[in-house]
Inverse folding.
């Protein structure tokens, strides 16, 4: 059965095979604001609004896992004013997320929570706990996330287990590494969407994207609406994924 993205003017037929996990790199907020002569933080506010639009649309389409790169381990190097503004947007999100999470959505944070202010950390932990049994969709938000940081952390955990005699070094395999990542139990990324005209991963889910398809567009994240997502899904439907086979 084909799915239809209902549009005012036209109807786009989306592919029958939708990705199980879409990873969104929410980039271009600063440039969106600059183009309008506004401070960069305005772009982050607009980007956060668009995030909500896209979450709702994915839910409507029945996409089961969606992840969003919101703040990287490298983003702390930005001016304090910008980092503070992003943290405040994040705080607003955590205070007002319930309506977005209704209807059985599980919330998972990817990244090290320890670097956040205690009130944010507590809310993140509570949200994960409160939604852990939700089954319809999993919404992952990568905050203070870095793919290399995540892999180094997994290596530390496994090394400790080996030193404590819980596991043998020779038993470490791809599955045991995947089980120590923030995405434990969640599917790998099928489709990475990066707006803003940059062609890179910027340390996003580097392990989980090993066989992902990539979709790049010049559109800036605050303008990446449901029509843009339809286009990405149509493009994804045309890709021939071989996973090393023939
Ligand atoms: C992405 O937008 C949001 C974060 C990295 C927090 P940017 O802030 O990177 O926007 P550009 O790339 O400068 O336009
Ligand atoms: C990637 O965007 C991180 C997020 C979207 C959160 P950046 O703007 O930080 O990436 P680079 O610096 O252009 O690679
Ligand atoms: Mg950027």
């Amino acid at each position: 059965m084909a799915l239809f993205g209902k549009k005012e003017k036209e109807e786009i037929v989306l592919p029958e095979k939708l990705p199980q996990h879409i990873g969104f790199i929410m980039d271009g907020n600063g440039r969106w604001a600059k183009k309008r002569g506004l401070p960069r933080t305005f772009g982050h506010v607009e980007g956060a609004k668009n995030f909500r639009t896209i979450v709702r649309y994915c839910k409507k389409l029945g996409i089961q896992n969606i992840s969003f790169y919101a703040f990287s381990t490298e983003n702390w190097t930005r001016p304090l004013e910008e980092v503070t503004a992003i943290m405040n947007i994040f705080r607003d999100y955590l205070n007002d997320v319930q309506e977005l999470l209704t209807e059985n959505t599980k919330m998972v944070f990817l990244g090290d929570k320890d670097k956040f202010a205690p009130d944010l950390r507590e809310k993140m932990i509570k949200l994960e706990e409160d939604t852990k049994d939700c089954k319809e969709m999993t919404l992952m938000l990568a905050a203070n996330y870095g793919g290399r940081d995540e892999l180094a952390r997994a290596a530390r955990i496994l090394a400790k287990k080996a030193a404590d005699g819980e596991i043998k070094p020779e038993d470490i395999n791809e599955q045991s590494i995947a089980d120590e990542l923030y995405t434990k139990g969640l599917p790998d990324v099928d489709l990475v969407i990066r707006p803003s005209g940059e062609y890179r991963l910027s340390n996003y889910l580097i392990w989980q994207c090993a066989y992902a398809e990539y979709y790049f567009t010049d559109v800036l994240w605050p303008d990446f609406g449901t029509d843009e997502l339809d286009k990405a899904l149509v493009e994804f439907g045309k890709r021939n994924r071989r996973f090393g086979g023939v």
In short: The mean pLDDT is 94.
